[in-house]
Amino acid sequence: MFVIDYIKEVWRAVKSLATGMRRTLFYFTHHREIITQQYPENRDTLNLPERFKGEVVMPHDEKNEHRCTGCTACELACPNGTIKVITKFDISPEGKKKKAIDKLVYHLELCTMCNLCIEACPSDAIKMAQTFEHSVFDRNQLTKILNNPGSKIMEGVE
Amino acid sequence: MWSFSQIANNVHEWLGRTFSPSMALFFEMVLAGIAVIGLFALLGLVLVIMERKVSAWMQIRLGPNRVGPKGMLQSLADTLKLLVKEGLTPDGADKFLFNLAPFIAMIVAMLLMAPVAFARDFQLWDMNIGILYVSAVSSITVISILMAGWSSNNKYSLMGAMRSGAQIISYELSAGLSVLSIVVLTGSLQISEIVHSQANGWWIFKAFPTVLVSFVTFIIAVTAETNRAPFDLAEAESELTAGFHTEYSGMKFALFFLAEYVNVFIVCAIGATLFLGGWMPFHIGNWQGFNHVMDYIPSSLWFFGKTFFLIFVIMWFRWTFPRLRIDQLLTLEWKYLLPISMINLLITTAIAILGWHF
Amino acid sequence: MLNEALKAKITELLPEASFEEQGQWLQCLVAPKDWLTLAGSLRNLPDLSFDYMFCLTCIDWKTHLSMVYHMTSTQFRHNLVIKVKLDRTSPAVDTVSHIWRTAELHEREVYEMFGVLFNNHPDLRLLILPDGWEGKNPLRKDFEDPINMIRL
Amino acid sequence: MVEEIGTTSEGDLIINVGPQHPATHGVLHLVITLNGETIKKVEPHLGYIHRSIEKMCESLTYRQFIYVTSRMDYLSAHINNHGCALCVEKGLQVEIPARAQVIRVLMDELTRIASHELWWGAMAMDLGAFTPFFHAFRERETINDIMEETCGARLTMNYMVPGGVMQDLHPMFQKRVKDFLVLYKRKIHEYDELLTGNIIFQNRMKGVGMLDPADAISYGCTGPTARGSGVRCDVRKFAPYEVYDKLDFEEVTEQGCDSFARYMVRIREMQQSVRIIEQLIDNIPSGDFQAKTKAVLKLPKGEFYQQVETARGELGIYIVSEGGTTPYRIKFRSPGFSNLSVLDHIARGSKLGDLVAMMGTLDLVIPDIDR
User: Is residue C139 part of a domain?
Assistant: First the structure.
């Protein structure tokens, strides 16, 4: 009958709305479900996974030595021209000329964190750091030189 | 006992002693004006922060929490921001109407404050046609919206205004009809009499099924009338960016914003007065002890408690439901709310005549 | 339908069509003037019913352009690749946008990217490039953007 | 005044939706001709985010070009990368280790769930319900955390390489995925309570944007858009890649042909993805995660086409190789581009409010359309 169908329709509609309202009331009263992270405050407890790709860095040991041979594999692997390897020739104690890096220039502003350079590196000289707060006021500060001044290649890395 | 009415009486007596009667009346009007503007600003701040907190908790967020203790001063900071913002007027706009519209919206909201009974014997103007006044004045809101939408010279604004016009005019009907059922039961249009008629129980309990239906209809209709979601088609941000106030910025936008919240407060206050007994405390039959405890709670608290509960319900709607489409909005009014409230009014009238309520 | 049967069927429809045996699907080379009639029969013959054209593009071979149409039948799941060789200076081919509606936007894309004119296309305007774009077609091999060219 | 605000001679109103508009989720520009509230014509203007990825790829090597494709359909970045890797592998004819295959499928399905979660929230927001957005993001964040732990990034992972995957799974991966499945199953009924069952929502979706199956095929619609019209077009079923042919899952189709059917397809597809993950998560074979490939990849002369099923539909990668280290021509047949083309067809005659519902259920990702 028309009237009964009409009432049923209204009842169904009200019920469906009430179901939704019950769900939002549940969250309104259950503050434990809140998932907001308060970012600058939780900096100390913020744990980024060790694989997080934030920035390319070159680890140096305590003797200020790195593992980079200057083979330019990373430069070739990079799709954006982010890395420029500037090489020089060291004179070894035996008087032999040996290729080494002068500067490894890294343009953070061009980097897409694709990890291809890390994969390409034969001597594990570079890795991804877990930093992520990269904002600076001057774009030039994003161009970084990865090797420390005065650093040299580790013994035994070819 | 300390109460609003006592303060008002003291002020009135003091003014009467110190000045001539006409000067006293003038000062009283100034004081009332200041009080209304102050309440207006305060309500804006409180309701905005309330809305933001309610929405945040329903959306498993924290909400504003940076400015002031627990973010309670956030809306103050926002107001400051809106005040110092540049108020832009678009080139092709009708400048006079464009600038006038937000003021009309605000004046309407202020006018509506007049008959609201905030506490026992505390009312700006207890006119004998209080309910009629409220429903008459509240429909002027649509003019400000139409004015804003038309004068902005923006297609989104115009569409928002047109939608809003259709919506407010249709929902006036069922809001009026549901209010009428209380008028029928009390036999008076005067707010104070309606409140006093609920001394032995609120209408929502006294004539249970029919008044409950008119209460639900009233809440739905006023949600639509104040352009709140799920009936916010005039603003419909995913369709019309911001609807009728797309082109407004700075303080003019803030006035619209404020007027919306004050309108919500007023319709909830009217709803609380009509259906939930206004400032009348909650009494249960002959439980003298319980009733005395209830009487100790100040009447203004009762009033604001009920009003804010209704405001919460309206916010609850907003943060739960998706928006209706324009044709569905009108279908809901003309095919569901209007017949239901008409039949309901008939039954209520029968109940009132036969005296079948408590 | 298997590739051999498909080949026989197309040869029957269009004796001039030649075939290439490379890639995963049957490739068929068609002259621009024959394309429209072949397309209609490919779409409408009940035992072919290539109703779904999933890829429409163009390749610039420096000497000529070739339109590549990948199509399949949602009913039989057999695939066919049609190639139409076009002249590079004034490339033009009949539109198939009324046969496969998806071709309408794809042909507009090819039009602006390669400069291929589609005869009888209902709405052949620039789609992706900004209005008033002048100069060469970006996906051609000799295109060089004087300002923003990416050099790696 | 009427002339000033842009009308046609018949009195129709022409409005620009976008390029900056809350409903377009990006820089899509639609020029809409309206008669009152009724839509007469929708005309897309594209290109605001066109980066010519196809041209860029012509100068990138076969290892390098994969990362660019994450930027096309950024919500199914894994699946885009997967398709490219598969296409290159097809040319190289390398055998991919079983472990890598399973990892790839797991990642694809997690991506699909994450993408549909975002779609669900964003579509609810288009319709004016804000709360579901945050609820959807709660589950999506969990997936993003899993991705971050294993792949090192949350959105553009670049995890697939020709021959396998870049790194092995994180030791915690299995546990985290199982935790996610528990969370997901606990929360999935809330989606129905909040949105699916809601009468307002159903009225907004049912009978809106009717797309009949023949049109869906003719317009080249794929993915949930076409499956909502009952077209069986799941690449995972008709041209299975990796281990999909060994898996037990349904191809979700609905017969409704309207927006609600497309909505339900996506909701049910998430459950099928959960089913796939459940089958695989305890059966990840041990072994290499990457096949041995040469340092410099060279594809033989020829043409290679690979289809994959992204969250939005069929992505086709068409590589034309001249035998060098870079592709001669590459074409991405993006699902969004074809799905967008149907918008004008289904929107005519409906209300302006329906347009957002339709755009929501077409699940448009603008960089995928523009490329």
Answer: no
